[in-house]
Amino acid sequence: MKLYKNIMISATAGMLLLSSCKDDAFLKENLRDRLSTETAYTNKAQFDALSANMYRTIQLFYNTADLNHEAFILGQGTDVCFDPRDDAAKYNNWGLVNSREPFSEDWFNLQYSIIKDANTLIENALKPDVLWVNETQKNETLAEGYFFRGFAYRNLANMYGGVPIVDKPVKEAKIDFVRNTREEVWIFAKRDLEFARTNLPLTTTSPGRVVRAAADHVLAEVNICLKDYDGAIAAATRVIDGTDGAYSLVNARFGARSTEADKNYYYDLFVMGNQNRQTGNNEGIFVAQFEQSSTGAVVIGGTQFAGRPLIERMMWCNYWGLIKAGYTNVAQDSTGRGVAYCRPTNYTNYTIWRNSGTDIRNNETNIKRKYYFAANVGTFRKGDVIPKSFLTTRDDTMLYVYPNWAKFGTDKHIAQKPDNGYVRDFYVIRLPETYFLRAEAYLGKSRADLAADDLNVVRRRAQAPLVAAANVDIDYILDERARELYGEEFRMMTLTRLGKLYERTKKYGYERSQESVQSFNNLLPIPQNAIDRNVGAQMPNNTGY
Prior knowledge:
The protein is mostly helical and about 550 residues long. Among the domains are: about 1-200 and about 515-540, Serine Threonine Protein Phosphatase 5, Tetratricopeptide repeat; about 310-420, no CATH class. The protein is built from 18 helices and 8 strands.
């Protein structure tokens, strides 16, 4: 890689700003001894090493920091979840969401980090002196770069509106970036994704590596943004009908723990080791890798922070600490070590499950609603269900006892260690969402009947009552997304894409969020650091920030 003293994700866009330090000894070395971007990439292995950077960045979507940092993109402060520990926390209090707010800034910068690597890959893969086995290998490598660049620009446009488009490596200081329009960014992303969906392989032996179906899935969403509903339907259909590979909803027991009679196939989707196609899961389309042992492939396993993902710690309640119910305040293998940094709203825990019938996503296997006394307490015996009347304080129901979704933790940790023994891969894209996107596109064409058909494919798998076409609108689709994809989809981004964040938070969010959210929060702010560094051109922020 070309030797730079400082590589900064700049301003407006976290693009590369390059600075040098004249006195640093390493700058005096013989240029012939240094590796540069002009000479570094000459064969497939070297491009794979660059691709690994992008997969590592995807890991950071889920594994950057502790506490509630990763809950931001999952929808913290919106209709689906909130911070139960502090009413004054960011996104509980939308008044604290401004251009210097770090959660949103981190997400913004991660996208431009991906774009930086993708641009480097694309530029170098097109050079004539690269040693390719054949044209297919070249195009597949390029397609990986185009996929990630299109994916990142889709993320940016959905969340922030118009952002600067950078389509090649920035090799010298640049301080005059200009925001493109939101539509221009979506169009740019669409072109990248069209190349990716044409040239990515259908399958791969490397767990987690992107394939054609991932590109078509994201393309379907971008086409919806551009109101190209026919294009969206075509892209989603290629995933659903087998054109992009053999994908299907799981409807039978599989993988690790599949012999446990008290579990079911929906539970199996979230058992450690069960997320990749290589383990018999035909539902995962793009899966971020976190297994503790290295995959030995381009997509590196393991974690970058704290030795494990912190999803159980963040999303599960702290019932093992409810001393008044006989617990010892020591986490056990069977209880996990939830710390309640992010709690589902009443909408997520209760409203969406009204009239849910036999929907297995809502049964006790998949959402734990019953908690038991751990010792004899007064008239209660060990093993009795803790009644609602026993939960008398705010902390009782905000921190200690609330529904735990099984997809975020386990009762059988690695080495029986509840503090760091839940390490599973994360779905970036799962097939039910492809059905939801196609349903959304059908709705855009005023075909609620076909939208209902797609929703009912997912609901039928869940053994839920089927929905009638007359009841299908965009809010119903958002409800179904919450039922199926809570804690998986980037809910914050879904709501900003649709311009529904304000409306849905006002209606379903936590009380403090309802009180503080404003209509301009339908877009998030461009980070102030990006604006301040861009001294060569005006970089206006989104209205309201």
